Amino acid sequence: MNDAVHAMQHPILGPAEIGQGSNPGRPDQPAVEIIALNKWFGSFHALKNIDLAVPQGARFVICGPSGSGKSTLIRCVNGLESFRSGAIRIGGADLPRNQKQLQKIRREVGMVFQQFNLFPHLTVMSNCTIALRRALSKSRAEAAAIALHYLERVRIPEQAHKYPGELSGGQQQRVAIARALCMNPKIMLFDEPTSSLDPEMVKEVLDVMVDLAADGMTMLCVTHEMGFARKIADQVVFMDQGTIVEMGSPANFFAAPSQERTRLFLDKVLR
Questions:
Q1: Tens digit of pLDDT for each residue in 7-62?
Q2: Residue 116, SS3 per DSSP
Q3: How many CB atoms lie within 10 A of CB 11?
Q4: Contact (CB, 8 A) for 62 and 222
Q5: Per residue in 158-181, is it b (16+ CB within 10 Å) or e — as a string?
Q6: CA-closest candidate to residue 124, choices 80, 170, 172, 86
Q7: C-alpha torsion sign, points 178, 183, 189, 192
Q8: In this structure, are residues 269 and 226 in contact, taking their beta carbons and an 8 Å threshold?
Q9: 218-240 CB burial, b ≥16 within 10 A, e <16
Q10: Of 181, 175, 184, nearest to 126 (Cα)?
Q11: Nearest alpha-carbon partner for 182 in 65, 7, 49
Q12: What is the chain's percent helix, strand, coil content, to nearest 5?
């Protein structure tokens, strides 16, 4: 099953329920908990004993060099990649291996990918409403009301009746974010959401993500945008060679990293 289909397999709430999602699990239960996670691609050990707990309402930014395991980790959280050993818990519930059971856990999680994964033959409105109508049998009016709410949220309601090919890359990524938000997820995962954008389009997507962070959305974001990490992160996680090398608040991470590998990385990306 491709990423675009995965991205649409979440429950969608009706207009009266927009913005009324509750955090999963007990108030003190981490939104996402990763325990001794190991992942291999053949003989390549991609993730090595990863431990990470993301509190409810927290914003974690994961950074690191290419090939460090960042995207693999976040895809494991949403069940898009299997793993060899360890555990992942969403709101206290173990991420199951069975696909049918996995769909229940995915109901808590929205994901935005590097590529926009929009259906090119459908309008923006249809991209945002197709799951509402097919999966939950919402009426056309109900689905449109939900979609328009979130298109307004990402500042492009005027694009509702255009096709993806008529939009800029930044606008397409904002549609992808709106589509994920239509599911009213409790956790949002972002896998390098600006990496496919021209530099002048990056800011418009990051601005939307900053707004989501201000609303208290639990976020786990893989990105190379260090300015974004400084602005919204509660914790910055630095990965290299499949391990978490260092984690800390933006103030500590950028001003006084404790590991030499982190310092070398920051010297390159902050020049």
A1: 333 333 333 344 333 344 566 789 999 999 999 999 999 999 999 999 999 999 99
A2: coil
A3: 16
A4: yes
A5: ebbeebbeebebbbbbbbbbbbbb
A6: 172
A7: negative
A8: yes
A9: bbbbbbebbebbeebbebbbbbb
A10: 175
A11: 7
A12: 40, 20, 40
Nearest-angstrom CA–CA distance, 268 and 271: 6
Strand duo 235-240 + 59-63: pairing: parallel
**Half-sphere exposure for 151 (CA within 13 Å, toward CB):** 23
SS3 38: strand
How many residues belong to the chain?
271
Q: What is the DSSP letter of 154?
A: T
Q: What is the pLDDT of residues 55-95, one digit of tens each?
A: 999 999 999 999 999 999 999 999 999 999 999 999 898 98
**Side-chain half-sphere of 231: how many Cα atoms within 13 Å?**
15
How far is residue 85's CA from residue 213's CA, in Å, rounded to a whole number? Answer: 31
Number of neighbouring beta carbons within 10 Å of residue 149: 17
Chain position carrying tokens 């197709």: 130
Residue 263: other Cβ atoms inside 10 A: 12
- Residue 250 CB partners (closer than 8 Å, separation 6+): 229, 230, 233, 236
